[in-house]
Amino acid sequence: MSSSVNGTPDATSTAMNTYSTPAYGSGSYGGGGGGSGYQSCMQMCAASYGAPTMASSTWSAPSATTTATSGSGCTHTVIVAPTQGVLRYVPFAINASVGDTIAFVWNANKHTVTKSSELAICNKTLDLPFASGVQNKSFVFTQTVNDTNTTYYYCGVPGHCQKGMFGILNPPNALMGSNATVSSMMPVMASNSSNMTAMVQYTQMVTANNTVAGNWGGSIDMSGMPPSSYQYLLENVMYTRTFLAANPEVLSADGVIDLSSAGTTPLIVPKDITAVATNSSTPSGSPTAGATGSSTSSGVSSSSPSASTGGARSLGSSSILVSVVIASIAFVL
User: Fold this and answer.
1) Coil, helix or strand for 247?
2) Most confident region among 105-109, 249-253, 296-300, 309-313 by mean pLDDT
3) CA angle (109 as vertex; 92, 298 as ends), nearest 5
4) Where do the H-state alpha helices sit in 173-314?
5) Is residue 1's pLDDT more than 60?
6) What is the dihedral of CA 84, 87, 91, 97, to 10 degrees?
7) Residue 208's pLDDT band (boundaries 50, 70, 90)?
């Protein structure tokens, strides 16, 4: 991809490892619109885990004031830190086609979007890197997709990635029957940690009335990632699941995420998934070997199975069409 700042090209990159696009995306919808079901479940969760897990903030798409360089396809929005203190990209993983545009929209201060790699998630890659620099709320960083290779990115602010702030574009999809999927790894990791068990149970509770949200991300292939990153990947999947359960209007009947479908209604931003965790007796590492910074011990995502060949139900590919302020930086992978 080529990149540009204020419309001026500054880099050209070649393809990374080839990625065969699976049926990741148009997940079967299990009948999960129910906002009332979510609220009822939230009451039960509050009784079980306490009020700190309730929604902490809201997110609204900023108004469009400028035009950015973009692809010919649709625009996928990724929220960078949905509220101050929640170190997540939402959604954590998206599928995008050639010609699509990725718009990273900041909703909190002091974060970056920086390209990394599967084996060193918290380190800037030397392979034709891209980096937004440290930016603040309402900033938007755009990317036009020229291929469907798997791309990792992270927050370069010290300590943020080590606490799980990374994301994936066009994530690898596991074959049917693989034991390295998100769905397969969840119960294994939860069985070794009370923190993980609490987060798994909480996620299952809040997504109980929304099958698509509960299965989102289930077929992501974890086999190529360092084991130290497993916990954090699973936490990210869980957080996106709780976000979708809190905002069922953004999840369509075919599993597509569209943040613009909420219209002018602010989206609910849940508190971080780690808020439900109990004290863990299992220590955890950082997301990547060689990365520095503090790490936190927290749980893994829910064990809801991915019920579709090729992962069709596991990750609704984000076809996000939302008006955004484009802060004059566009780049192309």
Assistant:
1) coil
2) 105-109
3) 45
4) 182-190, 194-206, 211-215, 230-246
5) no
6) 110
7) very high
313 touches 212 (CB < 8 A)? yes
Q: Which pLDDT value is given to residue 60?
A: 67
Query: What's the first-to-final CA gap in the chain, in angstroms?
Result: 3
Asked if 299 and 268 touch (Cβ cutoff 8 Å), the reply is no
Q: What is the dihedral of CA 68, 145, 230, 213, to 10 degrees?
A: 80
Tokens representing residue 14 in the block = 């070649």
d(CA 61, CA 319): 15
DSSP 8-state secondary structure symbol assigned to residue 219? T
Rounded (5°) CA angle 98-171-63: 60
Spatial contact of 258 and 212, defined as CB atoms under 8 Å apart: no
Closest Cα to residue 111, out of 137, 147, 74, 72?
A: 137
**pLDDT one-digit tens code per residue, 181-200:** 999 999 999 999 999 999 99
Q: Where are the beta strands (DSSP E) in 68-196?
A: 75-80, 89-90, 93-94, 101-106, 114-116, 140-144, 151-154, 166-169
- Written as six digits, the tokens of 93 are 């993983």
Q: What share of the chain is helix, strand, coil (3-state, %, to 5)?
A: 25, 20, 55
What does the pLDDT average to over 236-248? Answer: 96
Cα 92 from Cα 317, distance rounded (Å) = 11
* Cα separation, 286 vs 327, whole angstroms: 32
**Tokens at residue 119, please?**
């084996």
Q: Secondary structure of 88-108 in the HEC alphabet?
A: CEECCEECCCCCCEEEEEECC
Q: Give 133-167 pLDDT, tens digit per residue.
A: 999 999 999 988 888 999 999 999 999 999 999 99
In the block, which residue shows the tokens 């980096």?
A: 131
- Cβ atoms of 127 and 79 within 8 Å: the answer is no
